[in-house]
Amino acid sequence: xxxxxxxxxxxxxxxxxxxxxxxxxxxxxxxxxxxxxxxxxxxxxxxxxxxxxxxxxxxxxxxxxxxxxxxxxxxxxxxxxxxxxxxxxxxxxxxxxxxxxxxxxxxxxxxxxxxxxxxxxxxxxxxxxxxxxxxxxxxxxxxxxxxxxxxxxxxxxxxxxxxxxxxxxxxxxxxxxxxxxxxxxxxxxxxxxxxxxxxxxxxxxxxxxxxxxxxxxxxxxxxxxxxxxxxxxxxxxxxxxxxxxxxxxxxxxxxxxxxxxxxxxxxxxxxxxxxxxxxxxxx
Length: 283
Fold this sequence. Notes:
By secondary structure, this protein is of the alpha/beta class. It folds into three domains: 1-77 and 179-187 and 211-220 and 230-242, Rossmann fold, CATH 3.40.50; 79-158, no CATH class; 244-282, no CATH class. It has helices at 41-49, 71-75, 93-98, 111-123, 139-153, 169-172, 193-208, 220-226, 244-247, 250-257, and strands at 3-12, 15-25, 30-34, 56-61, 64-65, 78-81, 155-157, 163-165, 181-185, 212-216, 229-234, 237-242, 261-265, 271-275. The protein has a six-stranded mixed beta sheet, with helices on both faces. A hairpin with a 5-residue loop joins strand 13 and strand 14 (271-275). Helix 4 crosses helix 5 (139-153). The protein is globular, with a radius of gyration of 19 Å. The model is unreliable at 158-163 and 166-177 (pLDDT under 50). This is Iron complex transport system ATP-binding protein. InterPro entries: AAA+_ATPase, ABC_transporter-like_ATP-bd, P-loop_NTPase.
């Protein structure tokens, strides 16, 4: 029921990009992967996505090595949104989202595929852009369209045929292998604050329906509000993991980022980080 990386090591020259790192993406939970630039976050996510093979260590999905999965079968269950997605064609937003339905063997003209794509666009607030060229959209609009694409990719059906995200009912019915997983690398980098909050709602809804979510973020306060669990990396290694309250402590912020900060409490109970502005300049 999980996507698990165990003792992952990746070395380039004399540099350990990832050093014996282990991480689990658990169904029903949003996990945020945090750390400074160069900590190994994106590299570890590329290992989890199967884009690169580790020098040592293993990656398994539902207890099976990634190499044992048929590509389309895996793509129906696990979607990945990396920092940059380049489309070399002048597709419309609807065309982009319909790409997410290809692993399901659905024609782009099929009513079911177009219905799911429309719902995914609606979920990300981009349905009004369905016919717009992707090349003419703003960075934030493109980011939301690509989010709709990966949502459409892991969209599942109920027995009644109504589209939905995979929910806990599958596990109850003994088909836990259908549980979905979503990996997102910096999905908020071009988003306005309102859409960052909307993304939080989308990911929480996915998790509530049994999907495992892993998201890389640089905004610590957004991560604290979004994540059930935080995994903190430094120098290619896992520094700490736990709830936002457990992980985002003044000592950890100082050790990982050299950040002098006060930890406050937000209206919903999650920590709010208030950096001191009179500290030494960054090197």
